[in-house]
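We emphasize that the prediction below concerns an isolated chain of 236 residues; any contacts that depend on oligomerization or on bound cofactors are therefore not represented. The input was used exactly as deposited, without trimming of termini.
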Amino acid sequence: MNKKRYIYTFIITLAIFFFSIWLSNVFSDKKVQSLRDLESRINLDILSVETRFSLLQKTSCEHIVDNDNKKDSDIGFNVDLNNVALKIKSLENQLGYENYDVVSLKKYYSLLQIKDYLLAKEFHDRCKKNTVSILYFYDTDCTDCAKQSIILDKIISDYPEIRVYYLDRKTNNPALDTLSSIFKVTQSPTLVIAEKTYTGFQDVSSIESYIPDIKIWKALKEKAASSTATTSSTKR
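Result of the prediction step, given as a C-alpha cell string:
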C-alpha cells in the first residue's frame, strides 16, 4: 500500500514538475515576444524621427517654428526622443545593459541625440533663435553619474527651455567618440554647456551659473507671478 502511495506521489510530483517547466516556457515565450514587439515599436519611432529630422533640416525657419504653438525649445524632435528613451529604458531594465539588442538600440539613440543637437545648433545659427543645450557624457557604472542624472532631471523640470542629451560613453559609436574628442571629454560625468566643457559632478547652482539665460527666465517668471498676484488682488 505504501509502495503504491509513493508511486502515485512520484507521478504527481513529476507531473507538477513538467507542468511548471511548460508554464515557465510559455511565459518566457510571451515575454520574449513582448520585448520583440517593443523593439519593433522603437525601430519605427527611430525611423519616424530620422525622417522628421531630414524634413526639418531642409525647411525654412518659418516652417520650423509656429510662434503661436511652439517655443524655441521645441525645435527638432525632443519629445520624440524622450519617448524613445523611455522605451529603451524599459527594454534595458528587462534585458540588461549588455544585451545585444539594447546596445544596438542605444547606438541608434545616441546618433539621434547628436542629430538633434546639431539641428538645434543650426537653428540657433541660421534662424537667430536662442537654444540652450547640455551634452551630458556618463558611464553606467559611475557613482557620480547617478547623482548627476538626478540633478539634470531637476534642471529640466525647473527649466523646460533647456535640452539635455544623455550620452552613454560606453556606447561604441564613432560619432559619439568624435563628439567626445571635440569637447575633450576624458571622464564621467562631463557636461558641455555653450560649447564649454565642465568635468566632474556639477550641482544645481553651478549649472545655473553656467547658463546666463536662467537669470532672464527667473526674472520673467517672477514678473509673471507678480502680475498674476496683482490681478487677483484687484479682482477681490
